[in-house]
């Protein structure tokens, strides 16, 4: 699971604003994507790659 606190700090926005962006992205894709996918798309648009370390 992607940590929204981490993502909001990377983007320099509040958690509320991040949630708004996530909701907009999900709506844009007609509810066919989940929150994690929306976050990854948002980061990609900003030129940021999210890598998970196991």
Compact description:
It contains three helices and no strands.
- What is the count of β-strands? 0
Average pLDDT confidence is: 94
Q: Calculate Rg over CA atoms.
A: 11 Å
Q: Provide a count of the helices.
A: 3
Going by helix content, strand content and strand pairing, the class is mainly alpha
Q: Overall 3D geometry? A: globular
Distance between the termini: 12 Å
**SSE sequence, one letter per element:** HHH
Instruction: Name the poorly predicted regions.
Output: none
Percent helix range: 55-70%
Q: Strand share of the residues?
A: under 5%
The largest sheet, given as strand count, sense and whether it forms a barrel, is: none
What does this structure look like?
This protein is mainly alpha-helical and 54 residues long. 61% of the residues lie in helices and 0% in strands. It has three helices and no strands. Helix 2 packs across helix 3. The mean pLDDT is 94.
Give me the secondary-structure topology.
Layout: H1 4-11, H2 15-28, H3 35-45
Helix pairs in contact: 2-3
Descriptors for this entry?
mainly alpha
């Amino acid at each position: 699971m992607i940590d929204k606190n981490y993502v909001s700090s990377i983007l320099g926005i509040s958690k509320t604003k991040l949630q708004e962006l996530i909701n907009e992205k999900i709506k844009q894709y007609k509810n066919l994507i989940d929150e994690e996918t929306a976050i990854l798309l948002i980061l990609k648009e900003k030129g940021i790659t999210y890598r998970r370390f196991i």
